[in-house]
Amino acid sequence: MCTRTLSHCVCVVGLLWSMGTAAADILHVPGDYPTIQEAIDAAVDGDEVEVHPGTYFETINLLGKAITVRSSDGAGVTTIDADGTGTVVTCTSGEGSETILEGFTITGGNAIPGGGMANMFDSSPTVTDCTFIGNTAVEGGGMFNAFGSSPTVTNCTFIGNTADEGGGMYSVLGSPTVTDCTFTANSADEGGGMWNLASDSTLTNCTFSENSADGHGGGIYDGFGSPTVTSCSFNDNTAGSQGGGMYEEGGSANITSCTFTSNSANSGGGIFALNSASILTKCIFTHNTASRGGGMHNIGGSPTVTNCTFSGNTANSRGGGMYNNNSSTTLTNCTFSGNTVSGSFTFGGGMFNDHSNPTLTNCTFSGNTVSSTFFQALGGGMNNSNS
Predict the structure, then answer these.
(1) pTM confidence score
(2) pLDDT in tens, 116-140
(3) CB 89: neighbour CB atoms within 10 A?
(4) What is the mean pLDDT of residues 5-32?
(5) pLDDT of residue 72
(6) What is the spatial distance between Cα 127 and Cα 246, in angstroms, rounded to a whole number?
(7) Which residues pair with 235 in a beta bridge?
(8) What share of the chain is helix, strand, coil (3-state, %, to 5)?
(9) What does 320-377 look like in DSSP terms, one character per residue?
């Protein structure tokens, strides 16, 4: 039986409550700590590291802490510069969504994986309002995500980053969620803007423009994954080989309400799909160029294309709008108009089917043309070949 006074009990309860809900600290850089890393070292879960304007020549590691590291005045005036000494930001200790990086320009990274940022070993931080610019790596010039790491990346810009694979971003066995981000003028041997392998990335409202790949995937290279790509635009991306806008191999991407404009490649100016079961819905392909498949080139596989428009695309050999090669493509409610093939041997202004019997339902072909400067021009709207 309690014989203590009511006021005493209230005080004890209040003390216990305050001990269990201590307010988070805000650690200021450079006011409290001269470097960002020193502030991170001192922080505990729930704390905030607030970084004031300036350029900080260092590399940082978030150390698995559930903390927020943010700039006070935004990426425009707050920069973390590795100055070529390694990865700018590292998360390799199982960071979760409560580890937040916000409002920085991240530059000067030079590493094997992840020039700007490396997320590995089930590390999935939240990255918001950051600019990744001028970083270099073998894999993932701007950002590297691997081995169960699926960061949430929102309102970020990737510009002028370079790598062998994944100039802007590289993901393998990780599935980042990328929203309202811009990938511009990144370059790589494969995957100029983004490189995904066995990744189920989710991309929404993103823009890929002026990215380049020497080989495959000027905008995006995707292999053996099932990414979801919604309301994204691909403009003026280039690939030396296949897939100016996107390169899809062996996966089942779901691509909805996306636009592919003025992309170029040797094959598949807009999209090149190899043994793919991708699903395209309400997409627009316009003014893309390639030797084969100005808008889209399918080899093998069984893509499904619904309510899509192919207009003003150009090839200089086969398939101004689309080229199907040994592919079981299904097209429904699609429009092919004003596509062109012009060259020495030209076939299929709107569509060319080589050893393919696509299924077409309610599709329209109008104003597609073929012209030859040397020998043969066949099939303004569609041409089929089994030879």
Answers:
(1) 0.92
(2) 999 999 999 999 999 999 999 999 9
(3) 26
(4) 60
(5) 98
(6) 24
(7) 209, 261
(8) 5, 50, 45
(9) SSEEEES---EEES-EEES-EEEEEEEE-SSEEEES---EEES-EEES-EEEEEEEEE
Single out the residue of 93, 60, 195 nearest to residue 139, CA to CA: 195
Supply 233's token pair: 């635009």
Determine if the peptide bond prior to 30 is cis (ω within 30°).
Answer: yes
Structure tokens at 325: 């090669």
How far is it, in rounded angstroms, from Cα 376 to Cα 115? 50
Cα separations (Å) of 342 from 49, 236, 294, 299, 350?
59, 21, 11, 22, 12
Pairing type for strands 382-385 and 351-354 reads parallel
Tokens of 354: 């080589």
Separation of alpha carbons 240 and 242, rounded Å: 7
DSSP strand pairing (169-172 vs 246-249) = unpaired
CB contact set of 223 (below 8 Å; sequence gap of 6+): 196, 197, 198, 249, 250, 251
Task: Write the pLDDT tens digit of every residue in 215-269.
Answer: 999 999 999 999 999 999 999 999 999 999 999 999 999 999 999 999 999 999 9
Does residue 383 have a pLDDT over 70? Answer: no
CA–CA dist 281, 271 (Å, integer): 14
What is the pLDDT, as a whole number, of residue 374?
Answer: 45
Q: How far is CA 333 from CA 191, 268, 324, 362, in A?
A: 31, 21, 18, 5
DSSP letters along 259-306, please? EEES-B-SB-SSEEEES---EEES-EEES-EEEE-SSEEEESS--EEE
Q: Which residue has the tokens 């511009």?
A: 184
Burial (CB count <10 Å: 0-12, 13-18, 19+), residue 201: buried
Structure tokens given for 191:
């995957």
> CA Rg, the chain, in Å?
25
Output the six-digit token pair for 365: 């072909």
- 275 torsion bin: left (phi>0), alpha (psi -120 to 50), beta (else): left
**Which residue, 350, 304, 346, 296, is CA-closest to 325?**
296
Q: Match 């490649």 to its residue by tokens.
A: 265
